[in-house]
């Protein structure tokens, strides 16, 4: 049985664990990341792929602004752009009340450099004719966009490995203890690891881990229904959502449209497949 002592242990190789591994390794920490599956194979690899600030609660915007800067430097950070595109994010209003909400948000978010453009019905038709007649207006954030999560999330893990982090894929953590000073992990494959710091980045499975340390977190796994079309002639020039939620859609360079909305259903009892 092999044993490894590091500075930081990370459970979970989604975007959260992998990006933490990257920045910690770049900061000189000895990092080991344990991923039960492949990095980016769970929620981080199969989501809609929206990368936006528009519509986020105001309290999240300072963090979103920092993330926006990181996304702009993705090629340098990861060695791939992950098909990240600042297409703009268009938020449609289906009623005058919804348009008033978009106007209020534009007002309240001033100072966060979103550069929101409010489009009335005729301006929306002129600039985005493919939207059709259903919307009474919209708010457009020109520098928001979308990316291919299937590419971006594993790329964070690969970049972390290049920066010196040890990434263990197909390695499920089966036991976690704390001896008062260090965390000890054991894996299905027979590894024992220890470190003074442990990051619980297990996504939908994080609550169970947290509960083991007396820190229960109310966590429910939920996901939208998603679909991807065959490639279509390019027509959708911006990632698009709707005020109040409901449906969102984007079109990738190959022509496929990715749509999401509502609630999907899970295939097993705990609503999160291992
Ligand atoms: C480019 C991008 C765009 C996104 N766009 C959207 C969007 O438009 N809308 C939206 O709602 N969300 C979006 N998201 C967010 C996404 O839906 C998820 O919420 C997010 O990626 C979750 O990340 P995570 O690392 O917490 O979880 P996960 O990706 O699920 O990672 C957790 C990992 O922990 C591992 N794990 C669990 N238990 C163990 C164990 N015991 N041992 C070892 N490993 C374990 C799992 O195998 C899993 O890989 C986006 C994410 C990305 C990367």
Overall form: elongated
Low-confidence stretches: none
SSE string, helices as H and strands as E: EEHEEHHEHEHEEHEEEEEHEEEE
Topology, number of strands: 17
Fold blueprint:
Layout: E1 3-5, E2 8-11, H1 15-26, E3 31-34, E4 50-51, H2 61-72, H3 74-78, E5 89-93, H4 96-108, E6 117-120, H5 121-127, E7 137-141, E8 145-146, H6 149-162, E9 166-168, E10 173-178, E11 183-187, E12 192-195, E13 197-200, H7 206-212, E14 225-228, E15 239-242, E16 247-251, E17 257-261
Helix pairs in contact: 1-6
Residues 11-17, 34-37, 41-44, 47-51, 147, 149, 152-153, 172-173, 201-205 line the site of flavin-adenine dinucleotide (FAD).
Task: Give short descriptive properties of this protein.
274 residues, alpha/beta, FAD/NAD(P)-binding domain, D-Amino Acid Oxidase, Chain A, domain 2, 2 domains, 4-stranded mixed beta sheet, 4-stranded parallel beta sheet, 7 helices, 17 strands, binds flavin-adenine dinucleotide
Describe the structure.
It is a single chain. The chain is an alpha/beta fold and 274 residues long. It has 2 domains: 107 residues, FAD/NAD(P)-binding domain (3-Layer(bba) Sandwich); 139 residues, 2-Layer Sandwich (D-Amino Acid Oxidase, Chain A, domain 2), CATH 3.30.9. It is 26% helix and 25% strand. The strands form 5 sheets. A 4-stranded mixed sheet has the order 1-12-11-10, with no helix packed on it. Strands 9-3-2-13 form a 4-stranded parallel sheet. A 4-stranded mixed sheet has the order 6-7-5-15. A hairpin with a 5-residue loop joins strand 16 and strand 17. Helix 1 packs parallel to helix 6. The protein starts with a strand and ends in a 13-residue tail after the last strand. The protein binds flavin-adenine dinucleotide (FAD). Flavin-adenine dinucleotide binds next to helix 1, strand 4 and helix 6.
């Amino acid at each position: 049985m092999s044993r490894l002592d590091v500075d930081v242990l990370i459970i979970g190789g989604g975007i959260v664990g992998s990006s933490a591994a990257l920045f910690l390794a770049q900061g000189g920490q000895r990092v080991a990341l344990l991923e039960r599956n492949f990095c980016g194979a769970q929620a981080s690899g199969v989501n809609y792929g929206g990368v936006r600030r528009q519509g986020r609660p105001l309290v999240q915007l300072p963090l979103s602004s920092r993330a926006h800067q990181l996304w702009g430097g993705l090629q340098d950070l990861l060695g791939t752009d992950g098909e990240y595109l600042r297409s703009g994010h268009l938020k449609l209003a289906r009623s005058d009340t919804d348009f008033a909400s978009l106007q209020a948000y534009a007002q309240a978010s001033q100072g966060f450099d979103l550069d929101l453009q409010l489009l009335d019905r005729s301006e929306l038709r002129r600039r985005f004719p493919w939207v059709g007649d259903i919307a009474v207006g919209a708010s457009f954030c020109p520098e928001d966009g979308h990316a291919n999560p299937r590419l971006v999330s594993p790329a964070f893990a690969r970049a972390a490995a290049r920066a010196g982090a040890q990434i263990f894929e197909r390695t499920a953590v089966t036991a976690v203890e704390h001896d008062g000073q260090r965390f000890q992990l054991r894996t299905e494959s027979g590894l024992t690891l220890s470190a003074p710091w442990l990051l619980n980045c297990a996504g939908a499975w994080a609550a169970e881990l947290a509960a083991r340390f007396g820190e229960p977190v109310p966590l429910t796994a939920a996901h939208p229904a998603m679909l991807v079309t065959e490639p279509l002639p390019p027509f959708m020039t911006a990632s698009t959502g709707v005020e109040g939620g409901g449906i969102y859609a984007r079109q990738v360079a190959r022509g496929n449209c990715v749509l999401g909305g509502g609630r999907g259903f899970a295939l097993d009892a705990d609503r999160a497949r291992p």
